[in-house]
Amino acid sequence: MTTKSRIAIELSKIKGYVNPKIKLEQYVTDSEFAAEILWNAYLDGNIENKSIADLGSGTGIFSLGCLILNAKKVYAVDNDMDALNLAKENIKDARCEFIHSDVNEFNKKVDTVIENPPYGTRNKHIDREFLIKAFEIAEKVYSMHKLSTSKFVEKVARNNGFKVSKVFKVKLPLKKSYDFHRKNVEKIEVGCWFFEKQ
């Protein structure tokens, strides 16, 4: 039987970025955090037998988790070919389609979007582009953002006809990935918003 802890163990085995790109805000997503989000989405009935878009899929941690939880189809969408190649190494499942594309150009309708977009620290309001695309293609959206941007995130949702059903709040551990990082692990306050179309 699949459990949240089993998912976290499986997700901890995936290959992370070798040379992360700061302009794309690439970080390795913590497996415990990913498992928590995925397990909640699964319990909400929004993964099993559903079509999922993982926007900004990176190395594929959320895509793989959805497949473990019996998603019908997963689209792993990323504009970085290096990240997609790593995702292809991490995921050997015919239900996953890897799409090298800017998020704005992806137009397939799906049941659920699960996304951990760039937080907009390098590219201002890039997170807004991900949210708006998610709202265009699905009626259920799980999206991760810094808690400090709550008002902005929720306003974008309201303006696009979505309501906040719940928010999971965590202190996300970010491992040292770049030369300018001073600490080995930095904890940042992150929320995962579950939005539903009104």
Explain briefly what this protein structure is:
With 198 residues, this protein is an alpha/beta fold.
Q: What level of helicity do the residues show?
A: 25-40%
Name the structural class: alpha/beta
Mean pLDDT: 88
Order of helices and strands: HHEHEHEEHEHEE
- How many domains? The number is 1
User: What is the CATH third-level topology name?
Assistant: Rossmann fold
Radius of gyration: 15 Å
Corresponding CATH superfamily:
Vaccinia Virus protein VP39
Give a structural overview.
By secondary structure, the chain is of the alpha/beta class. The chain has a single domain (4-197), classed as 3-Layer(aba) Sandwich (Rossmann fold). The chain has six helices and seven strands; from the N terminus they run ααβαβαββαβαββ. The protein has helices at 4-11, 31-43, 61-68, 81-90, 126-137, 150-159, and strands at 51-55, 73-78, 96-100, 112-115, 140-146, 162-175, 185-197. Strands 3-2-1-4-5-7-6 form a seven-stranded mixed beta sheet, sandwiched between helices. The N and C termini lie far apart (34 Å).
Question: What is the element layout, followed by pairings?
Answer:
Layout lengths: L3 H8 L19 H13 L7 E5 L5 H8 L4 E6 L2 H10 L5 E5 L11 E4 L10 H12 L2 E7 L3 H10 L2 E14 L9 E13 L1
Parallel strand pairs: 1-2, 1-4, 2-3, 4-5
Antiparallel strand pairs: 5-7, 6-7
Helix pairs in contact: 1-2, 2-3
